[in-house]
Structures are given as C-alpha cells and as structure tokens.
C-alpha cells in the first residue's frame, strides 16, 4: 500500500475580504496518485493548490507532508498561463528555476536538455516563446516544472486555454510521462472528460464554502489509450462525476432531476 504524501486536515481559508474560500477541507493524497480536483468556479480549487504550495497561509487546520518526500525539489507548479519570459529563449526559460537555485550552468544545461526531451521539444532550445504554438509554450512551462525533478506536481488548469486536439495530445503525453516518473499529481480542471481520462481519483468540490463533496476512484488500468476514451466504463465514470458535480452546483441529484422531468412529461 502506498504512503500518504499530503494530508489536509480541517483546512479552512478565509481571505482578508471575508470570503470563505475553504471550510473544513479534509483530503489525503497517496504517493504516486493522479488526483483531479473538479468543481464549480470559485469552489476553492486553486486555493487548495496554493495552500499546498505554501503560497499564502491557511486560516485554520494543517497540511502534513509524508516522510517519503525529500526537503528539496519536492514541489513544482504549472499554471494555466505558461508565464514564460518573452525575451528569453526556451533554454533560458526552462533553466530559470535551476539558476535561482544556484545550480552550476553546465549541470543545469544538461538537466534542461533532459526536461526538453521529456516534453518532445529538443531542437527548440534557441526558439523564443513568440515563435511557438500555444501547445508548445505549455510544454515549455511543463519542462520548467519538471527540470527541478519534483516529487509532487501541482497543475492548475494547465490545458484550459488550448484547443481540444492539442489538449488531448498533451493529456496523452502527460500520462505517459507520469507512468514513467510516477510523481504525485494534483490536477485542477473544469473538464470532466479530462479528469476521468487522466486520474485514478477525482475529487469533486462544492462552493460557498469550498469543500469536498465526492471522492471517486477511477478504477481503470493504465496505460489509457483511445480505446479507454470510447469505452462504456469511461462513459460511466464521466456520468458519475457529472452527477456529483450537478449535485454540488444545484444541491439536488441529477437522477432525481431527470426523474422529476420525466414524471412531469408523462402527465
Ligand atoms: N486573493 C483573494 N482575495 C479574496 N478572495 C479570493 C482571493 N483568491 C480567491 N478568492 C475567492 O476565493 C474563492 C475561491 O477561489 P479559487 O480561485 O480558489 O476558486 P477556483 O475553484 O479555483 O475557481 P475557478 O475555477 O474560477 O478558477 C472565490 O470566491 C474567490 O473569489
């Protein structure tokens, strides 16, 4: 059995303007899990990631780290916007975290090339962000996270701004990498299909106040191919997440809603 890597216990977050972003959030993430957080806008998904990353403090509660984590390089964050330095080459953008950590240039260059290899961007070292497509810029952003060799990868809607085809390709590539490296991934998305395809666990949150309302294991084997995306099992999981999300947003079960509608029609 795998060990817990992050445990949130009774975490609440009230921003200075009084917004209760999270209330009594409890969640334990096991080493190597791929966990997606889904939920309506404003339910606190990004706040959870930021608290885990140590970007701002929580109001009450605690976040504990598993013993398997080493002190250095344990976390990397990928945001929705690639946030690259426009004046710097791909090589320099990806090297940034190592430069900030004071890694010697020769060793850093080697690590950068490895990271670019992982995201299939070898050959673009000297390109500038403006010369790349949206998908390629996101790959640079992922390489910049991976170059630090993280144990935990926090991803805040990384593919939200990309077209469907690019998103689907990056989903597959991310899964392949995850299977090889086995980081723990916490992935925020609005997209149910993406969450089910990628994750072995989908956590559904509700808003006002932000909290966990469902925790759904996606019990399907990896690697997950196109076959999985078109399978009845995949559809069943998407329907289940969708129903829980509907409850989170409207406070009623979608099944109940559908039953009420059909009863209404038959009258
Ligand atoms: N710095 C802040 N100051 C005040 N309120 C904030 C701040 N950041 C977030 N909030 C509020 O906290 C709540 C949760 O925000 P958060 O961004 O975590 O939600 P989210 O689920 O990630 O939303 P979305 O899906 O729209 O990105 C929202 O009501 C938001 O307005």
From TrEMBL:
Pfam families: ABC_tran. SMART domains: AAA. InterPro entries: AAA+_ATPase, ABC_transporter-like_ATP-bd, ABC_transporter-like_CS, ABC_transporter_ATP-bind, P-loop_NTPase. It is a peripheral membrane protein. This is ABC transporter ATP-binding protein. It is found in: Cell inner membrane. Belongs to the ABC transporter superfamily. Nitrate/nitrite/cyanate uptake transporter (NitT) (TC 3.A.1.16) family. Its main location: membrane. Residues 6-232 form the ABC transporter domain. Transmembrane segments: none annotated. GO terms for molecular function: ATP binding. Keywords: ATP-binding, Nucleotide-binding, Transport. PANTHER family: ALIPHATIC SULFONATES IMPORT ATP-BINDING PROTEIN SSUB 2 (PTHR42788:SF19), TAURINE IMPORT ATP-BINDING PROTEIN-RELATED (PTHR42788).
